[in-house]
Each structure stands twice: as structure tokens, then as C-alpha cells.
Amino acid sequence: MNGIWLKKRYPPKRATNISCVAEQKENEPSFPVLSCTWETVGHQTKDEQTTYTLMVEIPFPRLNRADCITGVFCKGIINRTETYTSSPTPHNKASVSFGSFPHHMNLDIWVVSQSSLGKIESEHLRQDAHYFVKTSAPSNVKVIVEQSFPTSLLVKWQHPIDQVYIKLTSQIRFCQDGSLDWRYVDVPNADTSVQTSFRLQDLQPGKDYVIQVRCKNVRRNRGYWSDWSDSVTEKTPEDRPTSKPDLWWKSENGEAQLICKEPKFSNGRITAYSIKLRYTKKEGEQEIIPVNGSGTQQSVDQKPVTLLKRISLADKPSVRVCVAAINSVGTSPEACLHIPAKPSGTQTVEGMNVSTLDGQMFVEWKQPNSAAVTEYVIEWMSNGKIDWQRERNSTNKTAIKGKLQPYVCYNVSVYPIQSGFIRKPARLEAYLKQGAPSEGPSTQSNPAYYSAELWWNPIPLDKRRGFITNYTIFYQKDHQLKNITVPGNITSYDLTNLSGNTKYDVWITASTIAGSGKGISHSFTTLKYAPEMVAGVVVGVSLGFLFFVLMTTLLCFYKKEVIKKNLWPQIPNPGESTIGNWSPDYPSKVETPKENCVTGVCVLNVGVCEVTPGFEEDKTSLSLKKDKYLSEEHSSGIFGSSCMSSPRQSVSDSDEGPDLADSTASTVQYSSVVASSGYKGQNPAPQPQHSIFSRSESTQPLLDSEEHPDIVQEGSRQVQCSPRESLFTHGAENQNTIESDNCRLLGMEQHDFCPLKEEAEQTTESDSQSADAESASPLSSYMPQLGGYRPQ
């Protein structure tokens, strides 16, 4: 079996960019190790790697033979070199160790690259040995404070190595405590000596400063800077404040809060503030407010913000406030501000815009046409914390210098100030950086049948993490998911085209330009019946019921007689009798009735009753029956008299109206003959009697004579009347009698019927004659039923 085995290899390449450093050993003037790095060039494989070897050669100087003491000594130092080699390494760094560092001598440094395909040397780096030196940091750094020089500090230190070996130069850096704004000062050297002290000047009095020192070879472009020494902090002496305090205000709960920051050049610790309030030219007050630090709030730039005083402007248009800062040395200049109850005037700042770039927030605005603006105050507030900065009147764009937090909403305002008077500001909300909301809105619902009303509360400001651009409503039923996007400025929405009696799951996501936050899921069930459906059913049932009631009412109205006949039997009502309301044709002249007499009765004898011969016995029997009815004082039927056997309709029927006509449709006329004698028996008295004839129209049931027709038939066999009927008319008790002339025209005789007592005196002649006439032919009389109806 034959084959070929191939290996991929690359020839070595020269190393480039060699750099070396010799670091000082602590507390010793030597630099025992030289460390070098370089850049590798070319390709390498796993099977064949290139190795690198650091080579350092120290050539000794050539000496003359005249300088040699012995030949042996001179022979050893003439043209002698020392070479130091590192171990081969595949990496790009190596080091060599010296027994003694070659001060003031040159070094020759190069790198050898080697592989199986050969080796190659890099370019040689030839420099003085001090070119590669990095000393230790200066030690024993001290800062001396001089009370007579409040703006300076004296700094002293020691070099890490004696100038016999290396002559060094120094550099100082310093900053205020808590700041990272370092200032650098190069310490100049004298011609004959090395400088190890320096006075820092133009410092702020009463401030803490952090100071550090480092050193390097004094020769230009030789050696490396050492590390910085340990920090030393010292405070400058205090001096009188030279700048005004930064006075500002904020409105809260209807009152003005006076706040301020320390003067920029406070020159010491502020112990108190002197405040003057002037409401009018004559009214004012002044007080000293101590500062103890407990009531201060640290602003974002670490400057203390002090609440000076709360004042109410409810009854005052404005107040002039002047504040001065006090330290242990003196008092600062005053800062004055006119604080109105409400910023007035037209808005003098237009075109305000807030933007962010490289982690900073920039505010830009247009300068007003008026030149009266003396300065601008840029205010930003979040979560109740306030901070501000002042800009010159020529500025129209600035960066907020405070330390802002991402995902926090800031209310940024630009106030124009005109000679201390605060004018109306411009405001905008802004974020340094926006993110997705940390939570979504919580949803509530009011479901209907085909729709559901959804509403939600805005996300809390600290949870938004950006400007809400839109809301997305997700709702699903039976795994059918739908969504609707609505603008970010609304908090309610009506879902439509839903199914009735169906459960829906709803959740809402709030979105910013950086992402979305999901809210809590909410479930609701639509109504089983729509309100309009229920209303339709109710209206339909109500209309049906109303129609039924209406038809029933109409039916009862038109069929009232049938219903009355079937449900309410007819019961006579004596109070509705028409006996007292007869309406015959009476004369207009009213005759005065005789006392205890019934007047106004006309009797017309049309025919003469004939008694059938041979029936005297029956006649007597009939007379006895008539006396029987008279003695019981009941109204007899139409057969109670031989001459009044024909019933007729009441003359008052036509006057009672249709209702009374219906109720009296079966009215029966009754008549009765009552003897005027006090005796009532089967055998009539022989003396003449006066009888009273009367009739009535009543709705009472028929009496015995009507209910027993056999009696009527028996009487009819005994008594026969002529074909001509006896006609009579009767006037009502409350109406006038018919004129006597009318009776004569009709061939009737008018009579007054009066009751006679058993032991009455002799009447007048006319009465006697009338009684004699009646004895020959007995007259029947009718007595009104005063007692009402009695059951038979």
C-alpha cells in the first residue's frame, strides 16, 4: 500500500514593533528585568509553530592599551560584549534578567523567529539603557497648608532613585474632592538640582483637594512615567464668599418654597443664610437661617440644595427675596429674585426642543426679540427632586450639567429672567434614554351582548420608562386571537362585533420606541341577551297585554247586558221606582190639593161592566177575593178590578233614557182599589164608601194574581167587560194635576179621592151625592206603595 503524507507549513516572518521596559525594583536603584513585546507576522499551523527568542546584547566600550594596568585586564575588556537570551516561546512577549543594570550604556535588542523551515531576525533596537527605564512612584508626598495663602498649597515629595543614576523630572495632578476633573502641572527643574517641591496656586479657599505626584527621566523622550503616588487630600484655608448664592423657588401646595444652592465660590463651609423678604416698599422682614445639613437634599450634581423658607402668596401679588451666604470668614454678595404668585407675562421663550446625544441631554430654544432678558434658568424635575442651572442671555442651546438617570421622565423648563423678575416658562417632558415599560396597564370591562367597553388606568410614571406611543388590545375566544392598536393618549375603547354569551380573554400591551410591556390578563363574558332584545320582548308582551285588555274592555262594553244577565241577576231596587215620577199631560195651572186627599186622578168610563146572569155566587166569591187582597195591603195585579184589567207601558219610560228603558223593559203596571172604610173583611159594609184609585209602574215581580192565572180565568168567567177598555191617566205626586178642561175634552170626569173614617161626620152635600153615586157602582182605588217591595 503506497501513499503520500503532506504537511502544511509556513516559513517564519520577522517580528515587528519591538518595545521594552525595565521597571525599578522597590527600594533599590536597580532594574533587574527587561521585558519586551512585539507583533508576530505570518501564518502558523498546529503542526508547525514558529518560536521566538529575545536577544539583548550589551557592548562594552573600546579601551586604549595605555589605559590598561595589566595586559590581562585590558585583554578582557577590549571589544567585549554580553548577550542575554530568553527561552524560546510561541508567544509575543519575553524577558531577560540582568545581574547589574547597565546604566549609561547602550542596549542592542532583537527577536529571532525560527521554525523547521528556517529562522529570521527582526530589526535591531539600539537605545541607551535609560531609554527603557520606568522608575517607582515618588514617596513621602506631603501637602502644607498656609493660612496666609488661602488659594495655595505647598507640595513636597522624594524621588525613588538618586540623580547619580538617573536625573528625574516630576508632574503633579490635583482636583477637588469628589471630582474627576484633574488638573496637571509639570514641575520645572533647576539647572543644577532636581526639584522636589512645588506650590499649587489659584485654588479655591475652603475646598478639599486631592493631590498626586509621578516622575520620569528628565531627558526628553527617554524612559516612562512612573505610576502615580498615593493620593493626599488637604483643604485650603477659608475665605469670604466671593459669589452669590444660587437662589431659586418652586411652587407646592399653594405656597412658594425658597431654595438655594451654595455660591459657586463659597470659599468655605456655609454655616447660615441671611434672608430678606420685602412685600411692599414699607413692609418686609429679615432673618438668619442656619444650615445644619440635616434638612438639605443632595442634587444630582452633588451640590447641596437648601430649603430656606415657605411663604404664602395668597394675598400678595409677589415678594422680593434677597439671600446672602455666610461662612466663618464673612458674607457673600446678595442674590435677589422677584417671586410672583404666578408667573405672568407673555411666553418669551419659543421653539423649545429637548434632545439627547452621547448620554447627554441638550435643551435648545429661540431667543426672544426683546433684549430685556438678562439670563435663563434651565430647570429639570423628577419624582419631586429639583435642580437647575443658569445660562447667559446670549445662550440658546446648552447641555444639562446634572447627572441624569436613564428611563426617568424629567420635566424640563426654560425660565426667562428679566432683571430678577421671573417670566412665563416653556416646558417639555424628556427622557435621557427610553426603555420598554416594566409593566402593562390593568384592564377593566363592562360587557354587553355584541360589544364590551374596556378601560384602563395609565401606567405609573416610574413604570413607563419612556413615552407611550400606542396601546395594543389583544382579545381571544376559543384560541382565536385578534388585536387592535389604539393611540397612546386614550385609556378606553369599545370592542365591537363580539358574540353573545361568550367568554373573552383580554390583555393590553403598552409600547414605547424601545419596546412593549404586557399587562395583566382579564376575562369577561358577554351578555346572554342584548338589552334591546329584552326591551323588544317586554314591549311585545306589553303591547299584547294592552291589546288583550283593550279588546276585553270593548267586548265587555258591547256585551254588558249579556254579562250583566249572566253574572248579576236583576234585583229590583225600590229606590229606582218611577211611581213618583209619572209624567202625564197635566195642565200648567196647579190645583191646590185637598188635605188628606189624592187629587189629579181622571177616570173615563168608556163602557159599562156587565155581569153575566146566573153567576151571583161567583161574583160574591170574586168580591171576597178582592177584599182579601185589600186587607193585606198589597198591590194587586191587573186583574184586581173588573174595569182595569189592561196593563200598559209607563208614561215615564220615554223620559228615563236608554239605560232606564233597558232596566224597565219588563215593567208591569199595577193597580189597587183600597176602601176608605176602616173595616176590611169579607162582607162589605152597607154604608157607602169612598175608595181611592191609584196605579204604579214598577219593576217588581208579578204578584199572586199574575203568578196564578187560574184565578184570572175564574174571574173572567164571572165578569165580562165590554170591548171598550177603561182608560185612565195618573199624575206623579210631585207634578201638577191635569186641567179640568182637558178632562172634559176627553169625556172624563175629574175626581178627588179622600179616605173616609168609620165615624166620620156628615160631609157636604156634594160629597154625599158622590158617595151615593159610588154606592150604586162601587169604585176601586189605588194606594201608592209607601212601604216598598216585600217578598211574596
Automatic annotation (TrEMBL):
<keyword id="KW-1015">Disulfide bond</keyword>
<feature type="compositionally biased region" description="Polar residues">
    <location>
        <begin position="688"/>
        <end position="702"/>
    </location>
</feature>
<feature type="transmembrane region" description="Helical">
    <location>
        <begin position="533"/>
        <end position="558"/>
    </location>
</feature>
<protein>
    <submittedName>
        <fullName>Interleukin-6 receptor subunit beta</fullName>
    </submittedName>
</protein>
<dbReference type="InterPro" id="IPR003529">
    <property type="entry name" value="Hematopoietin_rcpt_Gp130_CS"/>
</dbReference>
<dbReference type="InterPro" id="IPR003961">
    <property type="entry name" value="FN3_dom"/>
</dbReference>
<dbReference type="InterPro" id="IPR052672">
    <property type="entry name" value="Type1_Cytokine_Rcpt_Type2"/>
</dbReference>
<dbReference type="InterPro" id="IPR036116">
    <property type="entry name" value="FN3_sf"/>
</dbReference>
<keyword id="KW-0812">Transmembrane</keyword>
<keyword id="KW-0675">Receptor</keyword>
<keyword id="KW-0732">Signal</keyword>
<keyword id="KW-0472">Membrane</keyword>
<dbReference type="InterPro" id="IPR013783">
    <property type="entry name" value="Ig-like_fold"/>
</dbReference>
<dbReference type="Pfam" id="PF00041">
    <property type="entry name" value="fn3"/>
</dbReference>
<feature type="compositionally biased region" description="Polar residues">
    <location>
        <begin position="663"/>
        <end position="675"/>
    </location>
</feature>
<keyword id="KW-1133">Transmembrane helix</keyword>
<keyword id="KW-0677">Repeat</keyword>
<dbReference type="GO" id="GO:0005886">
    <property type="term" value="C:plasma membrane"/>
</dbReference>
<comment type="similarity">
    <text>Belongs to the type I cytokine receptor family. Type 2 subfamily.</text>
</comment>
<feature type="domain" description="Fibronectin type-III">
    <location>
        <begin position="137"/>
        <end position="239"/>
    </location>
</feature>
<feature type="region of interest" description="Disordered">
    <location>
        <begin position="639"/>
        <end position="721"/>
    </location>
</feature>
<dbReference type="GO" id="GO:0004896">
    <property type="term" value="F:cytokine receptor activity"/>
</dbReference>
<keyword id="KW-0325">Glycoprotein</keyword>
<feature type="compositionally biased region" description="Low complexity">
    <location>
        <begin position="765"/>
        <end position="777"/>
    </location>
</feature>
<feature type="region of interest" description="Disordered">
    <location>
        <begin position="754"/>
        <end position="792"/>
    </location>
</feature>
<feature type="domain" description="Fibronectin type-III">
    <location>
        <begin position="437"/>
        <end position="529"/>
    </location>
</feature>
